[in-house]
Amino acid sequence: MQAVIEQYDKLSNAALKYSQIWHEIIKRCTDRFIGKIKQNRKLHLDELNKDLEEIQKSLSQIRSDIRNAEKILASKNFFYSPHTMNFEKLHVPPKTFATIPEFQPWKINELNIEESIFKQFGDLCKVNFWKEERNFPIKSTESHKEPNVVSIFNTGFKGSQSLAYFSDEQIWTSGQVSEVKCFNNQGQLKETFRTKTRQQPSDIGVTKEGRLAYCDEWGTVNIVREGIGEEVIKLLDWSPINLCVASNDDLLIMMYSHDFTYTKVVRYSKFKVVQIIQCDPKGKPLYSENVSPKYLCENGNQDVCVSDSDAIVVVNKKGVLRFRYNGISSSSKKSFKPLGICVNSKSHIFIADCYNHSIHIIDHNGKFLR
Questions:
Q1: Separation CA 347–CA 251 (nearest Å)
Q2: What is the pTM of this model?
Q3: Which of 20, 95, 120, 291 has the CA that lies 20 to 30 A from 243?
């Protein structure tokens, strides 16, 4: 309990530390605005000082003229005539007028601006709960329970390629042909779809709305709506080999370059690229650079799990490597060769090891379970 509290305290402290950046941004904006006010004030005062100097010069001239007039009046030889006192026309400087700038802040819709800032502040992954059985060292004659077979049915494909489960009434399967079939869990055929290119799909998935998604070697990703495949993503220099529909309905696409030198996972949100997972912070590729079969899925904690040529590569939602699973070492077994991969509600990862004809089960931290 205390460890959980400490972790949430760390999150709160991180948010408070991050908020200081926003405070600094607001402070810099405020300082810039006040700087503009001070600049206007200086211009205004400079102009008033110029007027003051002109007025002082005029006053000095007037005083001088008055003194000259008094001297003339005090003279005994004073004789008035229109030409006796030849005063210049009095010069009065023009009066300067200026408007004081007014602060005109933009009208703020507090609800909208707060929501906008909140969205830009950051993202907090939702809490995912799962339960794990606690195994105590109690002697028992019982071994691990074997999984129960719910049903077995024939898809009609000579070689099954991919499977995408949406519900007990909607299980999509594909093979090495252009057809994609939908069955229920009793093996009853519900629907058949044929790709536009009449080529087999590289992989299939199902969106949260229950729509079939598939990719092909022609560089397209398609969504099936009302029985018609609609191209939503077109790749030029890359070929998609696998796809996964994430929990938030993003598309995760595993692809390789046409020159077979690079492999990466690309996240699409509303069919636009929002993330590329390819290298670690040191620039080292996360995935093998060959075109060996690779499969991917998203775990309950939003980790992205990839079945590579000889290892399981797991990164977090931000694309940072969490761990690699290379199987369990045993001289009596062949080398670890992972292919298919999936997860369950407990965030356990199930891996098909084709060389050893077995399934490995590991937890979300890469610990071998069975």
A1: 19
A2: 0.59
A3: 120
